[in-house]
Amino acid sequence: MIVFGITVAWSIQTTTKKAFQLLAKEREGDSGSKETESLITAEESSYSGPIEELCKEMQDIKYQEDNHFTSQRMMFIFMNFSILFVTQFLYGQKEDSDYYLGELGKKLLLSAFIVCMLSITWFSVKKIESLHATKEDKGYNFDEKDTRFKDGICSIATLAAACLVAAILCGCTGIAGGMVLGPLFLKYNMHPQIMSGTNQYITMIASISVAIQFAWIGDMIWPFAIMFGAITLVSAYMGIQSINWYIKKSGKQSIIAFMLVLVLVLALVSLPIKSILKHNASSGEGVVEVGAE
After folding, report:
1. What is the Cα–Cα distance from 68 to 74, expressed in whole angstroms?
2. Cα gap 193→213, rounded to integer Å
3. Confidence band, pLDDT 50/70/90 cuts, at residue 171
4. Which of the two ends of the chain, N or C, has the fewest CB atoms closer than 10 A to its terminal CB?
5. CA atoms within 13 A on the CB side of 188
C-alpha cells in the first residue's frame, strides 16, 4: 500500500505540473485550434507531395503513418500478445493441473519470457532509431509535438527502461498501467491525445490476455463480464467522442491531463477509505467470533 501511495502521488505531481504547463501555453496562444485540428483530423502524414517522389524508406514511413492497422504492426502485436498469454497461463497453473510445469519448468519459462521481452525491446529500439535516422536524413517535416529522440539510441532506451519500471510498479501495486504510463508519457512531452490513445492500446493487450486466460480455465463469470464489458465499451466511446468534440471546439488539450489528475486523486483518496472499510470488516468478524464462543 505504501508503494501504491508513493506511485500515485508521483503520478499526481507529474501530471498536475504538465497540465498547468499545457494550460499556460494554451492561454498564451502557443497551442491554438489550428495545431489541434491538424493533429485530430489530419488524414495525411507530414509529407503532402506525390508519393512517387519519395524514396522507398519514406514511402514505407508514409504508409505506416497513414494506416494504423498494418500487417506488420498487427503481427508484432499478436506476437507480444501470444508470448504474454502463454506465459501468464502456464506460470499460473497449480500442481493439480494438467499444464503444471513444476518449479524448475516455471523458472525456465520465466527466464525465456524475460529473454524474449528483452530481445523484442532491443529490436524495437533499433527499429525506432533507424526510423528517426531516416527521417532526419530525408528532411522529414516534424511536427512541433512529435516525440523526437535527439540523443539517438540512448534516449530511446531510457524511455523503454522507464516503461519497464512503470510496468513493474503496476504489477506490484495492482494499479492500472495508464495511471503510471500516462504521467510518464506526458513527462516526455507526448501530446495528450496521443498519450491517451497509446495507453489504451497498451492496456488492451494485457486486458485481452487476462480475459482469455480466465475464460480458458473456466473462472469467467460471463453475465458480469458481458454487462461490464458493454458498459465499458459504451462509456469509453461516449468519453472519447465528448473529449474530441470539446478539443475541436476549444482547442485545449489540457483537459485530458486534468481529467487524469482527477482519476489519480480519486485513486489516492480511496487508499484510506479502503483501509478503514477493511479494518471495520475485520473488527466485525472478530466480534462475531467472540460472541459465538
Report:
1. 9
2. 31
3. low
4. C
5. 20
Closest CA to 47 of 132, 138, 141, 113: 141
Helix (H, G, I), strand (E, B) or coil at 48: coil
pTM, two decimal places: 0.61
pLDDT at 286: 47
Q: Which amino acid is at 246?
A: Y
Q: In Å, what is the CA distance from 127 to each residue of 21, 120, 130?
A: 32, 10, 5
pLDDT tens string 87-143? 878 887 888 888 888 889 889 999 999 899 889 888 887 888 888 888 878 777 776
Handedness of CA 180, 177, 200, 188 (dihedral sign): positive
**Cβ atoms of residues 178 and 204 within 8 Å:** no
Q: Cell numbers 507526448 label which residue?
A: 190
